[in-house]
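pasting for ref
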Amino acid sequence: MTDTKMTVDAGACRFTTKIHAVSEDGMTVTFTAETDCPSVKDLIASLGEVDGMDAVMSPMASNALMTKCGMLPHPACPVPCALVKACEVACDLGLKKEVTIKFE
């Protein structure tokens, strides 16, 4: 079982989301999250088990996880990207490596 935890600071909205992704078989991922964002709460509650290979390998336009993330009202929200990264690590398809966006 691979257990992955990460924290997302979404920026201007000031919502922080703590994501917990678990994969017991290296193929399906279950997410839980702590957040004050009502939209992210609804998203996480709607996910159920996620196909890790689809989430990591499918293009955004046909990716089931990204399609579900379409329910979020703000397209610049970093949570969808974080969910894919958490999926990668939980399925042992990627390394725990920080992702940053910096304004200069």
